[in-house]
Protein: TGF-beta family profile domain-containing protein
Amino acid sequence: DTQPDSSFSPVLNLLVTERETVPRSPRAMGGEAARYDDTLGSDCRKGPNHGRCCRHSMEVVFKDVPGFEFILQPYKFNAGFCKGRCPPRYHPASQHALLQSLVWQMYRAPRPCCAPHVLADIEVL
Structure:
């Protein structure tokens, strides 16, 4: 029998989100005039905290990724990536990241890495 076993179907689970930047009032930002670096396609603020962890754009074209050529739609999406310093208690991705940042201050654990804390599904065809 040359028919493939229908109980084994390929499955692809992608957990991503595309985040919209909502303008905030100067009061909500502690009086700091936040400007976002659009040249990098990011939500990173320019200014004194510019080196802190933030989301940068990362466009993924499925046909260019080995093993994902079968995806017809969407053709591409912005997967994003996190980059930057993560000072203690600065937007921890999880309770574990918060704990690690506090323990790191006592020099008993590695410095926490920045990571996304909100993920969402996308529909693919």
Summary: The domain at 38-105 is CATH 2.10.90.10 (Cystine Knot Cytokines, subunit B).
